[in-house]
Design goal:
binds manganese (II) ion; six-stranded antiparallel sheet; Aminopeptidase i, Domain 2; nine-stranded mixed sheet; Aminopeptidase; 453 residues; 2 domains
Length: 453
């Protein structure tokens, strides 16, 4: 009997065949990353995927039958994928997997366009927690929608194709940075300077705001929009980079938006590929990065409505069904970074390559704001994961009192559902280009599959 707890390195224990499964699995993941850079695109991409294997759209109020494969598209930004099982739902409850598909980015303001020094810029308001200096001098793409008064919606994606232009935020040259270098980072990098350069050719025959007018003329020709149409637009600037392997051994993947598509993808593959009699509800959530607010965030009552529809359709008591349900809140955690070792407590942190990481609690300053899963629920999960030989680990976000963070876990648990956080450890989380170990991504798939069995 081993009396001590030790993490295991997945690659070290994997034979050639397992290493190939890990690498092959992540080829699919990289495609998923590149095809969906925003919550809307990820939802659209996932709808295509589930429809291709027979899932049908669900309308609230419709009866759900055992064996149904359904999806509910919440305003194009959130998705509920439902596998209606044959097991006794009052006794077994619903197995819930939830990951979010919004990521930190720069959103355009509603009146974004201005001209200065013969250059046209778009003003932004950042979304989620970012280090502002990360977003300077990197290629940016613009994704999103412009909703028009006639009810139509114009889809925008500029900057992803090799032939596309990109957008750009300037930075001051080091030769003139003596003053800025003495400031704090918070003082030195101002949100109102995060303006995207979008044009530099003046419209002919104009003398005031000629560059701005030139840009508007091009946008009108391409998309049929005017400056006023930005009022009802959601346009998001994201890094114009693709997911790439990192390292000569290709152990890692770097990408924009691992948080939290690195959990969304395993959630989807586990849901679609696992044989189970259980009822499984797999959720892609929006607005996690700004507190899960609004009607596409996980604080919305919609999850309760969908659970009620399931209980009603099965003819069981909804309160009993919820009490017996369980949830993995699949969100990333901070991976141990040796360059910033003192920011972590190295007995209680997720290490890259050592598996999907369970966070019993998140929060800040004495677990405040945390779900803090019960010991009994974690014990049950330990048994489930061990039975399927899943290599996983435990962790917490970082050193106590250094900072903290939250997830959607507490909003699910509020429905009287046992919930715990489990996700892939990420290095450089919330940077424009984040890093994960491929072994951990595949470990997440295995863990989520074991959970819904
Ligand atoms: Mn997250
Ligand atoms: Mn995040």
């Amino acid at each position: 009997m081993d009396l001590t707890y030790n993490r295991k390195n997945i690659y070290a224990l994997a034979d050639e065949a397992e290493r190939k499964r890990i690498a092959d699995y992540c080829e699919g993941y990289k495609t998923f990353l590149d095809n969906g850079k925003t919550e809307r695109e990820t939802v659209a991409e996932t709808v295509k995927l589930v429809e291709s294997v027979g899932y049908k759209p669900y309308t609230l109020g419709d009866k759900i039958n055992k064996g149904d494969k359904l999806y509910y598209n919440n305003r194009g930004k959130g998705l509920f994928i439902l596998r209606a099982g044959t097991a006794d739902i009052a006794k077994c409850g619903v197995r819930i997997l939830v990951a979010h598909v919004d990521s930190p980015r720069l959103d355009l303001k509603q009146v974004p366009l201005f001209e200065k020094a013969d250059m046209a810029f778009l003003k932004t308001h950042y979304y989620g927690g970012i280090k502002k200096y990360h977003w300077l001098t990197i290629p940016l793409a613009l994704h999103g929608v412009v909703a028009l008064k006639d009810g139509s919606v114009v889809n925008v994606s500029i900057g992803e194709k090799d032939s596309d232009p990109v957008f750009y935020i300037t930075d001051l040259l080091p030769h003139l940075s003596q003053e800025i270098n003495t400031k704090t980072i918070a003082e030195g990098f101002q949100a109102e300077n995060l303006n995207l350069l979008v044009g530099g050719i003046p419209a002919s025959g104009e003398d005031k705001d000629a560059v701005k007018l030139g840009v508007l003329a091009l946008l009108n020709r391409e998309y049929g929009i005017t400056e006023e149409d930005f009022l009802s637009a959601e346009l998001e600037a994201v890094p114009a980079v693709k997911a790439r392997d990192v390292g000569v051994d290709r152990a890692f993947v770097a990408s924009y938006g691992h948080d939290d598509r690195v959990c969304a993808y395993p959630e989807i593959t586990a849901t679609l590929q696992t044989e189970t009699e259980q009822t499984v509800l797999t959720i892609l959530a929006d607005k996690e990065e700004i507190g899960s607010e609004g009607n596409t965030g996980m604080q919305c009552i919609l999850i309760r409505d969908i659970l009620d529809e399931i209980a009603k359709s099965y003819g069981v008591n909804a309160a009993v069904m919820r009490a017996n349900s369980s949830c993995l809140s699949a969100d990333v955690t901070a991976g141990y970074d040796p360059a910033y070792a003192s920011s972590f407590e190295d007995k209680n942190v997720g290490f890259v390559g050592k598996g999907v990481t369970m966070n019993k609690f998140t929060g800040a300053r004495g677990k405040s704001g945390s779900n803090d899963a019960s010991a009994e629920f974690i014990a049950r999960l330990r048994a489930v994961l061990e039975k399927d030989n899943v290599i996983w680990q435990t962790g917490e976000l970082g050193r106590v009192d250094l900072g903290g963070g939250g997830t959607v876990a507490k909003f699910i648990a509020n429905n009287n559902i046992d919930t715990v956080d489990m996700g892939v450890p990420v290095l450089s989380m919330h940077a424009p280009y984040e890093l994960v170990s491929k072994a951990d991504v595949y470990s997440a798939h295995k863990a989520f599959a074991a959970f819904i069995k």
